[in-house]
């Protein structure tokens, strides 16, 4: 057979692509790649109803810009929370809302105050915008040290970020304390309250969502994500609820067409599927409890969690433990500032967690955290 130059090229190219594929798709499916316990997703994914909505949108409206679907989602979210549509701003994940909030309230020469450690995507946005970032260590009980944060606030502080429950500690900051804190801030300081893990919070007198019980304060912005309990992290949808005035200001920094048609359709179906949300919360609570049982059985310390992840003591350098898990095909997040003897472990499927403890037990002297 005669092989033309073009055919040779095609073979080389296809060969190169095929060879590259395993690394590209590593971890993409349920079967291939490491077990992902690193990003606090819902390991079980969305419900069958949501998958059907995604398929329908992908097949029938992918050729359209998303204005109809995105507006339908905005109305749906407003109805879901009993707020006006003008109070809802959509984002390409709640991460995009953080970027908008920085651009709207904490740009060049202003200050952003946040906790340390916390979910700190917003820190990168602020630094790139030329804002000064002040990171205040958590209190001893791992709540936000609101007193210390307040002490750092002045009239150049554009924004304060409060992650409640907090990532990576999984802990709550008391609702009443946050209210008093907001009241004491300078009148020009906005507060972004990140409720990405809201649905996982166990019953607690200390917690009430600022969407469910709003403060009606132009300075307060609350964010939620479809990436956690709704199981849609890969589709990138999040939103903010704020007063109409704050929402308008945020939205002026929004990407045009920030949410795609598949994501918007999936999110609408997900909000309707309350049964799936409740079942996912129950399953997470059971599996989180089982995680604590396993930790206790090994006398390993863990911080009580209101989320779908747990901070586990390692009684030794976390970096070595993370490396041990990596070698055994389990992905964990990088070491956490101020917590160099802890790892953060996302609650995966029951099978993932069995594998987690099997790999834990392979560590030399794994019963490290004797109390
Ligand atoms: C507290 C917190 N907020 C926001 C996000 C990002 O959410 P999204 O996927 O909606 O951008 C995460 C992701 O892990 C998170 O932990």
Descriptive notes:
The chain has 371 residues and is an alpha/beta fold. The chain folds into two domains: 48-272, 3-Layer(aba) Sandwich (Aspartate Aminotransferase, domain 2); 277-362, Aspartate Aminotransferase, domain 1, CATH 3.90.1150. The chain is 41% helix and 15% strand. The chain binds pyridoxal-5'-phosphate. Pyridoxal-5'-phosphate (PLP) is lined by residues 39-40, 93-95, 119, 163, 167, 194, 196, 225, 227, 233, 238.
Entry summary:
The chain has helices spanning 5-25, 48-60, 67-81, 94-105, 121-128, 146-152, 175-184, 244-251, 261-272, 274-297, 318-327, 350-361, and strands at 35-36, 88-91, 111-116, 132-137, 157-163, 190-194, 220-225, 238-241, 302-303, 309-313, 330-331, 342-346. It is α/β, with parallel strands linked by helices and 371 residues long. It folds into two domains: 48-272, Type I PLP-dependent aspartate aminotransferase-like (Major domain) (Aspartate Aminotransferase, domain 2); 277-362, Aspartate Aminotransferase, domain 1, CATH 3.90.1150.10.
């Amino acid at each position: 057979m005669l092989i033309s130059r073009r055919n040779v090229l095609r073979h080389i190219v296809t060969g190169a692509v095929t060879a590259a594929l395993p690394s590209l798709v590593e971890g993409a499916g349920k079967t291939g790649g490491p077990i992902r316990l690193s990003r606090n997703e819902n390991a079980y994914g969305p419900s069958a109803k949501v998958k059907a909505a995604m398929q329908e949108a992908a097949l029938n409206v992918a050729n359209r810009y998303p204005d109809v679907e995105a507006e339908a989602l905005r109305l749906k979210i407003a109805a879901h929370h009993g707020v006006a549509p003008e109070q809802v701003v959509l984002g390409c994940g709640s991460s995009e809302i953080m970027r908008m909030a920085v651009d709207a309230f904490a740009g060049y020469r202003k200050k952003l105050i946040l906790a340390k450690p916390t979910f700190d995507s917003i820190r990168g946005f602020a630094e790139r915008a030329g804002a000064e970032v002040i990171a205040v260590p958590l209190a001893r009980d791992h709540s936000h040290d609101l007193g210390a944060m307040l002490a750092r606030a002045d009239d150049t502080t554009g924004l304060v970020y409060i992650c409640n429950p907090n990532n990576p500690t999984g802990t709550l900051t008391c609702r009443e304390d946050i209210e008093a804190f907001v009241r004491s801030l300078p009148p020009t300081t906005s507060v972004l309250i990140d409720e990405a893990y809201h649905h996982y919070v166990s019953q607690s007198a200390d917690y009430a969502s600022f969407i469910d019980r709003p403060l009606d304060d132009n300075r307060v912005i609350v964010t939620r994500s479809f990436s956690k309990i709704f199981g849609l992290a890969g589709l990138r949808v999040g939103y903010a609820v704020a007063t109409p005035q704050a929402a308008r200001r945020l939205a002026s920094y929004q990407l045009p067409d920030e949410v795609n048609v598949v994501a918007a359709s999936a999110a609408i179906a997900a909000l309707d599927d309350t049964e799936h949300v409740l079942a996912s919360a129950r399953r997470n609570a059971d599996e989180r409890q089982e995680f604590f049982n396993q930790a206790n059985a090994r006398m390993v310390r863990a911080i009580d969690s209101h989320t779908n992840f747990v901070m586990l003591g390692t009684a030794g350098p976390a970096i070595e433990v993370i490396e041990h898990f990596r070698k055994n095909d389990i992905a964990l997040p990088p070491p956490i500032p101020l917590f160099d003897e802890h790892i953060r472990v996302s609650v995966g499927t029951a099978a993932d967690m069995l594998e987690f403890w099997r790999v834990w037990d392979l560590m030399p002297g794994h019963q490290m955290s004797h109390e």
